Amino acid sequence: MRQQPSIAIIGAGPAGLTAANVFHLRGWQCQVFESDASAVSRDQGGSLDLHPEDGQLALKKAGLLEQFMAVARHEDQGLRIIDGTTGTLTREFAPTAGAGERPEIDRDVLRQLLLAPLDGNIIHWNSCVHAVVIQPDGRTTLQLQEGVAGPFDLVIGADGAWSKVRLALTDAVPAYTGVTFVELWLDDVDQTHPAAAELVGHGTMFALRDQAGIIGQRNGKGRLRIYAAFRTRPEEGDRPDKTLINISRDELLSRFTGWAPALTSLLREADHIAAIRPIMTLPAKNSWPHQSGLTLIGDAAHVMPPLGTGVNLAMLDAAELAESLINAADWRQAVQDAERAMLDRSSAIASQCIESFGEMFSQEAQQSWIDHFDAHHALPSSGTIPAV
Question: What is the pTM of this model?
């Protein structure tokens, strides 16, 4: 019988839980450490479209594709481009009923789907990892607020953009792109905000103008998430989530002077400002010297702009890493091989994402977006739906 390493996964997001499910399905043991107090202790963010070639493939490897298809919102795969000045519809993609390959799922629903098969003892909630420490024998311990966990033969960092596991491998940290998304919510939209519901439609709406954007995204349970996106001012620094924490509705609206009233009404009518989200990226060709017993997946490895690819790649990273370990005669070599394949794939996609994101916030953004649409009948895979 092949020896199974003791495995810790840091982070119970889509990547960490996908890896845990693949291990669980094949009878391998692991432990997951998550800083959230519980599965529902905070908002998980917007809706996701999972792609057949990565997100859905990962769920298939985890034995969960059928369950995903049963709860996904197949009706919310539409795309609309609205003129920022006039508020008129310029392009629309609305797949017919039963068509479309990228159904939507809210992040909290995806988390529950991924948690369902796992033994409750696998997940350690309210367990914030402050540091990982490599021991003299090559194994790794985790420094937690409540003590030390481990040692483990393998620690998988699935702990997002500000990964503590990454700090043990490289000094690379995400850099601010200069663009911030202010997230607002409108609830019960079909009843209380029918004009907003009609403008956004069943899917995602983009309006881009003058290096800014208003993006609307339909979520489940009658919610719209609206993203007011703009380039920040030099005095607002590289962490505008701190400097803009108390931004008022009037101040936000002042950044969209001259925009169509139908679009600014999405900001004016929103129930509240939910979050300030500065958009951060790692270099497209991010890498690190391989360290036996440590590896990264998802945003811990490759933070890129929120254009619908990040979660899909993260889940595929996780599923392929777990499968590689399970099927290999030498699990250490399997980690190194999976790491190399992941970085080769992600660097090419990150380069595309960074370029597309730059186009979104250029003076020619609206025409560029229309050109993409006309060339592909929908936005290319590197620029589909914001996943913030």
Answer: 0.93
